[in-house]
Amino acid sequence: MLSLWSPDVERDLIRKVGEKCFTTIECTATTCGKFKERAVFSEHSKCPHCGGKLRVKVAQSRNVPVSTFTEKYAREVMQAAIDKSYKGSLFVVRGARCPELSLTGGSAADLAIVRRKLQSAFKAEDIVVVMEVKMSLVWNWKPGEDKPSADFFQHNGRPSLSRTDSLLKAIGKGAIFRSTEKSRRIPYLVIGNCPPPQGYYAKLDGAVRSGLVQKFISLTPKPVLSGSPVRNPKQTRGGGFLRIDSMDELSDLLKQIIDGQGVYIGRMVDRKELGEKIKALDTDRPSEAVADRFIEALLK
């Protein structure tokens, strides 16, 4: 049975990826030689014995098998979540391409919820939701260990949504996606497996408030081994980020997003021009028709 991201899921990843996951960490001081270990991440910046500088040798290309694992995992979890309400009618695929939405080449959608199965090149009308996956290793592991030795507040690695460069890339991809006319009615989600840095809470809320992104979510209910709940927020003040705590919560969120009637209208408009467009509307028509006519006039 599928579960949200946890040490059990990550332990399975470590076993499948094998030695590529681990780095060699050792003290560089010739007079010391007391510290040397193998782990996924270093938990020290200096030798705990002599205070000397540590050398960290990272396995080459270890991110490729990790990203492959996390994308496959996210696809399976998202499919299980939407099957609760849309089994047999909506499908989650990896690497969806759609030139109409600027989803091409290296900028293909990591995941997409689509109406047609067994396709790689889609029309805009086939795509229901576009998702960017920013997931990686959350905890630290040492060879042969059955439990993690540290979480990302305790080791020196920075996973998924805690990396500011990952967040900026996800927002940038959303901006390119939103620059296409046919993306207006297609939600864009960013999926991670840890909380964002506190200094970015307002930025994520702003990206969601502006419509570039519909939600940043983490699929890890308990990413920290110990410490203050502040390190594991349920959501940001503006709701841009949300921690998912159960498959039912994920199913309900996706249903809300899929069934929603949101439309992206982001642009700068002269205030006088905006007022004239509003005055020209026939407000006696149904609300949805008024909204459609306003959006049509605004985006001309």
Description:
There is one protein chain. The protein has three domains: 23-58, no CATH class; 63-259, Restriction Endonuclease (3-Layer(aba) Sandwich), CATH 3.40.91; 267-300, no CATH class. It is an alpha/beta fold. Strands 4-5-6-7-8-9 form a six-stranded mixed β-sheet, sandwiched between helices. Strands 2-1-3 form a three-stranded antiparallel β-sheet, with no helix packed on it. Helix content is 31%, strand content 15%. The chain contains seven helices and nine strands; from the N terminus they run H-E-E-E-H-E-E-E-H-E-H-E-E-H-H-H.
Largest β sheet strand count, sense and barrel closure: 6 strands, mixed
Let me know the number of strands: 9
Alpha-carbon Rg, integer: 22 Å
Content of β-strand: 15-25%
Question: What is the annotated CATH architecture of the largest domain?
Answer: 3-Layer(aba) Sandwich
Structural class: alpha/beta
- Shape assignment: elongated
How are the strands of the largest sheet arranged?
4-5-6-7-8-9
User: How many domains would you count in the coordinates?
Assistant: 3
Number of H- or I-type helical stretches: 7
Q: What's the mean pLDDT score?
A: 91
If you consult CATH, what is the topology of the largest domain? Restriction Endonuclease
Ends apart, CA distance between termini: 49 Å
Residues in helices, as a percent range: 25-40%
Question: What oligomeric state best describes the polypeptide chains here?
Answer: single chain
Give me the strand/helix succession. Answer: HEEEHEEEHEHEEHHH
In the predicted model, the low-confidence regions spanning at least 5 consecutive residues are none
Just give the CATH class of the largest domain: Alpha Beta
